Amino acid sequence: MWKLIIKCHKKQLQAIKNAETYVHIAGMHTRKGSRLKATKNLEKETWKWAARFSHYIKTQKAFVSLLNNWLLGYISEELKTLDEADRLSPNRIGAPAIFIVCNDWHNAIQDISEDGVYKAIHGFASSLHHLQEKREEEHRQRIKTEQLLKDLEDQFEKDVIVAMQEMLDEQKATHQEAIKLANDAASDCLRISLPPVFETLESFCLENLKAYEKIRIPNASTSR
């Protein structure tokens, strides 16, 4: 399973690196608010992803620790005097294989930290929040530009037209800058904030793969 997941994250990371390096999402004519809503929903789900991932890993560790401690409670007093390596040796314990498996499982995953993955997902969510702010600002500036243009079309006095044209030119420049900042934020999400998510996921899965490979699975003859 871990090998398959690692392979999947490698392909995801490569796809991101091969993607277009600069993203153009602002200034495009789309249904009103559709892109803003999509960005907001993505940010919301990413925050949930970070929290649930961390909660899942912590819960798994707690469960394995509880199960291991419960099983150790059934080891005889004589075996408890032995070193852990001897006590949980398939040839010494004289107990079902679950004792060895759970103890190895407990020891294997306790030192594997999910913090790197959590921080990477958290960073991506933060960059999405920044993007959302820039998209909202671009949206506001676009509305101002469209309103000034509409007002200018309704004017007939030459002096007023000249003054409003200057205002419109300034507003267009402000809007163009807002478009650039929004596109910069979108590009940073793809180029800077997203790759670490899959890099840390790949590293996390690789650590788990190595750890799980060390878990002893006694066969019927050695667990008797």
SSE string: HHHHHHHHH
Share of residues in helices: over 70%
Strand residue percentage: under 5%
Form type: rod-shaped
Distance between the termini: 29 Å
CATH third-level topology: Substrate Binding Domain Of Dnak, Chain:A, Domain 2
Main sheet summary: none
Q: What's the level 1 CATH class? A: Mainly Alpha
Question: Count of helices?
Answer: 9
Ranges with pLDDT <50 over ≥5 residues? 220-224
Strand pairing plus helix content: what structural class? mainly alpha
Short précis:
With 224 residues, the protein is an all-alpha fold. The chain has a single domain, classed as Up-down Bundle (Substrate Binding Domain Of Dnak, Chain:A, Domain 2).
Describe the structure.
It contains nine helices and no strands. The protein has a single domain, classed as Substrate Binding Domain Of Dnak, Chain:A, Domain 2 (Up-down Bundle), CATH 1.20.1270. By secondary structure, the chain is an all-alpha fold.
Key descriptive features of the protein:
224 residues, mainly alpha, Substrate Binding Domain Of Dnak, Chain:A, Domain 2, 9 helices, disordered C terminus
Any chance you could write out the topology, listing elements then pairs?
Blueprint: H1 2-18, H2 34-72, H3 77-80, H4 84-87, H5 90-93, H6 97-110, H7 115-153, H8 158-193, H9 195-213
